[in-house]
Design brief:
The protein has 17 helices and 31 strands. The chain is α/β, with parallel strands linked by helices. Strands 3, 4, 7, 8, 9, 10, 22 and 23 form an eight-stranded mixed beta sheet that branches. Helix 1 packs across helix 5 and helix 6 runs parallel beside helix 14.
Amino acid sequence: MLSKLRLLRPPVSSGSRILSAWESKNYSDKKNGSGKNNRGKTPLIQVIKPVKINFSKKTKKISEPVNLPKKEIIISKYNEYPLKTCPLVAKDEFSTNSNSHTTSHSPESEKNNDWQNNSKNKQSFRNWSLFGGAIVLSGALYGIYHFDILKQKKDSHIIKETINAKKTRKLVQIPSLSESIPDSIQYLLIGGGTASFSAFRAIKSADPTARVLVISAEGYLPHMRPPLSKELWYGDDTEMAKSLNFHQWNGTSRSLFYEPEPFYTPVEELTTAKNGGISLARGWKVESINVSQKKVKLNDGKEISYDKCLIATGSIPKTLKLYDDASEELKNKFSVFRSIQDFEDLWEQLNHIKSIAIIGGGFLGSELAASLANKGRKNGIKIYQIFKEKGNMGKVLPNYLSQWTTEKVRNEGVEVVTETEVKNCSLDNDKQKVNLVLSNGKNISVDHVIMAVGAKPNTELAADAGLEIDSKLDGYLVNSELQARTDLYIAGDCACFYDKQLGRRRVEHHDHAVISGRLAGENMAGAAKPYQHQPMFWSDIGPSVGYEAIGIVDSSLVTMGVFAKGNHKDPSLLANETDQNISTNKKEINEELISKNNEYISENDYNKGVVFYLKNDVIVGIVLWNLFNRMSIARQVLKTDRCYKDLNEVAKLFNIHGDSS
């Protein structure tokens, strides 16, 4: 039937419109030959019934439709016999009816019959066209609806498969059997991150024939983590990102991995290699350490003896209590973000979801929010960021700068919800979305939730080893040489070290992992050096916010910011701003600093500058706001450990109006 209807009237294509009743009549007239240039032509659609024709000279050989009233054709025929037209009969056959017209064919009668014939065909065509159009339109709507339902089911199935793949992804162990791992080793490094990488490079530099075994619970080669939340999400080369390559700030591209696999000596060959080597046992986990016997036990029970050992297990992401108490089905809608596996899972999910909520306003939460907004902009993915502070990086940046940063994040397309916490969560009726109940009384429904609420040091080995944990900062307690016990060293995020200038500290940043790992490696090889480095860190939040920081940067401290005014090159045109977290005895000093150049400050003037963090009038931390290649100056300022009377003069050392590239 559908094929016949297409002969009557082509289906309505996209970009076309359905004809109105009046337009349909004109369209029918034109197609059936009633136009000016089509008079006398055969109608486009005609159903002919075979009839007997009298070839006598008195009767014309023509066929015309039965002359029924118009109303009778529509009602009796279309209702009683759908999709049938009134049959056509020969004129002479019809003339045998006593009630029919006479068989005489005057010019006036022929004209009248032609008009009736055209009228019938036009009416028939209009009815067929309207009916056929309705059928085609209904079929199209049904097809769209059916396709949408199938697509939803398919997407739901894909999402479930992605979740299941994430849950059931098996960690590959290399080597596959622990028998291939040496029973004793000269240098044993626990953890396969940046600190371990830096340590084994330092060990091999000091001892070229050293045999180093790295045991990593992750199934990947040692790699850097910062690009996972920043660089890998930018750029149009999808394949490049999938292969874990990215563009650096100077435009060059590089791999996320520090060294390719051929760099490492196979574990089976480590003890026999002539010049020693560095081997990596991936997918294996150290369950316990016996410090007195200098042995470790793997997750399958195998024991390994060591001469020197480094613990560089890093940190693990924190989770929310509402997540910990949730059902497994609801937990599948949540994730943390730290590893390559987390990156790959989230990358895949972006192909199937339309909304993400990021809980947390710190470094990771803010970087991810801006990065995902950039990545998902083409696909219309909605990004929410929810946190309890007044602005992004609220625990690090002074209030005014934090709120200015929040506006920049919003400009990236992120819906930032400040001063709010998630009080409860549940699945919707079809179990496809997560409903988040917020403390501000609002609800948000999203496809996925990322928890970026901080990290805690991985100190799982402390209990059995009898190692001390700092009660305030967490992390393994170590001395200035990063030593926890004889021949046992700790570096990276999990080390709580003593800083002779700033006191005991624990730092979770890339630069600290590099330097502490290197120092630990040198000391394992016999250097005995103290840790005197001031670690720095950096963050990039979209294209408008990039900064480097050093020392103690805590928004609860007194801060004084000096920012460039516009694009002026005059170093005297500086704008000052102080944070509101000031004590009474500092208030007069800070107000005086503000009044000097307050006329230059505005909410748009935080594009470039320097922020000083003060403790007892001494600079203990510095943030270089969109200023780069000035870190050596910041180190010198911190190293002086003195009270400055005029911080504007100190700010001039950083050449704020100069080139910041």
